[in-house]
Amino acid sequence: MQTGIWISLIIYFAAMLGIGFYAWRKATANSEQYMLGGRDLPPAVAALSAGASDMSGWLLLGLPGALYAAGLVEAWIGVGLFIGALINWIVVAPRLREQTERYDNALTIPEFLGNRFPSQATSLRMVSAIIIVLFFAVYTASGLVAGGKLFSSAFAGDYQVGVWLTLGIVLAYTVVGGFLAVCLTDFVQGFIMMLALIIMPAVVLFAGDGGGFVQAGQTLSNVEGFTLSWWTPDMTFIGWLSLMAWGLGYFGQPHIIVRFMAVRSVKEVPTARNIAMAWMGISLIGAIGVGILGRAYVERSGIVLEDAETIFILLAETLFPAIITGFLFAALLAAIMSTVSSQLLVSSSSLAEDFYRLLVNKKASDKAIVTVGRIAVVAVGAVAAFIAGDPDSQVLGLVANAWAGFGAAFGPLMILSLTWSRMTGAGAVAGLVVGAATVIAWISLGWNASFLGGPGIYEIIPGFLFAMAAIVMVSLVTEAKGEFRALVAD
């Protein structure tokens, strides 16, 4: 059994490293190529790269685990994410692609904000870079936790070894191949993830004494605390809104929206959008199926599953021959590594462009920036591995915190900076600070778990609203200083 699994995984690892080497030969000559692939991504690559870098280990571990534990009511997360992603592609993608190039060919989100609001350029680049590195350390840790869980659950290995092994493989192709390597591996990994999420629910549905949807429904109807309803008697409007609010996070995720900056042309954004949304819809339905049908299989088989987030791993080991199990584990690794590599690269780009070039060496050559970026990838990865040291960490919980941090800090800022000409640099800084601070305070006070004696409110909701209000109010009372250049309407 183990031999067949390892054969599949070795083939997968070799393919990812081969792509990294190809990208190193093709697109790491200067900072634009290393950080944005020369702004030459075909629509399909940009689409699947955005999707794969978004749908991390939480798609195959966290989301199925939530559905496994509570039932269909948790699927509202997927609905919110789908709506948010669609609006993000329509509103943000074409504008960001055009404006980042027009505003002095910005290579990072902080650099774009600095160019867009020159009166607060240094403050914006510094604050946004700090937020990016801070929350990405937590977000990257969630991926490494997923890698550790795979290694310990599937191979009875040491959790810490799994964390560092996952990080080591990602570093190997990210450090060498840069943005192009990350996007090309995402493209391949996106296909692997989607195939796995099509295959597994179909097999689980008729596994063993199967019986299809009817028997699955009958089995699950007797499980205490589990529901096949989209709404339960104890679910409040706030609870529903907290699930749907995941969609707000899309507008502020640097590792996703940076793909918009790299699409080959604005005209090709709609094609990329259609591909991305089709991929996302199929993948989310598959993940929901894994959680729901997986719970039915476990209950029917009398299996004891201690960690709901390992249901995908259990099904892969139990229902498939070794060579296919290896492929499914490769899909899980693809989900993990595609996101981790994207997050590390965005973090390193900010450290190189928005710290090193801005504060240390303003005349740094492209070669020096690429070198600093590679060092930063390793450094951020090491910090994330330290955060991921607790094997009891929950993937979905870590993702939820980081997702909210980015969504609240950058979401309102990106939407308004791309669409509202009255916005000022002071307003932009206020939005960043208020959004991030609100999320951190909300989590620290425990209000995401319980608020005023009632159910908790997901921290992205107050963070997003307060940041939006801060931007509007401060912009209206502060003076514009060369910041009202025309914005593109479409």
Automatic annotation (TrEMBL):
<keyword id="KW-1003">Cell membrane</keyword>
<feature type="transmembrane region" description="Helical">
    <location>
        <begin position="457"/>
        <end position="477"/>
    </location>
</feature>
<protein>
    <recommendedName>
        <fullName>Sodium/proline symporter</fullName>
    </recommendedName>
</protein>
<dbReference type="InterPro" id="IPR001734">
    <property type="entry name" value="Na/solute_symporter"/>
</dbReference>
<feature type="transmembrane region" description="Helical">
    <location>
        <begin position="395"/>
        <end position="418"/>
    </location>
</feature>
<feature type="transmembrane region" description="Helical">
    <location>
        <begin position="126"/>
        <end position="151"/>
    </location>
</feature>
<keyword id="KW-1133">Transmembrane helix</keyword>
<feature type="transmembrane region" description="Helical">
    <location>
        <begin position="163"/>
        <end position="184"/>
    </location>
</feature>
<feature type="transmembrane region" description="Helical">
    <location>
        <begin position="368"/>
        <end position="389"/>
    </location>
</feature>
<dbReference type="Pfam" id="PF00474">
    <property type="entry name" value="SSF"/>
</dbReference>
<keyword id="KW-0472">Membrane</keyword>
<feature type="transmembrane region" description="Helical">
    <location>
        <begin position="237"/>
        <end position="262"/>
    </location>
</feature>
<dbReference type="InterPro" id="IPR038377">
    <property type="entry name" value="Na/Glc_symporter_sf"/>
</dbReference>
<keyword id="KW-0029">Amino-acid transport</keyword>
<feature type="transmembrane region" description="Helical">
    <location>
        <begin position="6"/>
        <end position="24"/>
    </location>
</feature>
<keyword id="KW-0997">Cell inner membrane</keyword>
<dbReference type="InterPro" id="IPR011851">
    <property type="entry name" value="Na/Pro_symporter"/>
</dbReference>
<comment type="similarity">
    <text>Belongs to the sodium:solute symporter (SSF) (TC 2.A.21) family.</text>
</comment>
<feature type="transmembrane region" description="Helical">
    <location>
        <begin position="75"/>
        <end position="93"/>
    </location>
</feature>
<keyword id="KW-0812">Transmembrane</keyword>
<feature type="transmembrane region" description="Helical">
    <location>
        <begin position="318"/>
        <end position="347"/>
    </location>
</feature>
<feature type="transmembrane region" description="Helical">
    <location>
        <begin position="191"/>
        <end position="217"/>
    </location>
</feature>
<feature type="transmembrane region" description="Helical">
    <location>
        <begin position="274"/>
        <end position="298"/>
    </location>
</feature>
<comment type="function">
    <text>Catalyzes the sodium-dependent uptake of extracellular L-proline.</text>
</comment>
<keyword id="KW-0406">Ion transport</keyword>
<dbReference type="InterPro" id="IPR018212">
    <property type="entry name" value="Na/solute_symporter_CS"/>
</dbReference>
<feature type="transmembrane region" description="Helical">
    <location>
        <begin position="45"/>
        <end position="69"/>
    </location>
</feature>
<keyword id="KW-0769">Symport</keyword>
<feature type="transmembrane region" description="Helical">
    <location>
        <begin position="425"/>
        <end position="445"/>
    </location>
</feature>
<keyword id="KW-0915">Sodium</keyword>
<keyword id="KW-0813">Transport</keyword>
<dbReference type="InterPro" id="IPR050277">
    <property type="entry name" value="Sodium:Solute_Symporter"/>
</dbReference>
<keyword id="KW-0739">Sodium transport</keyword>
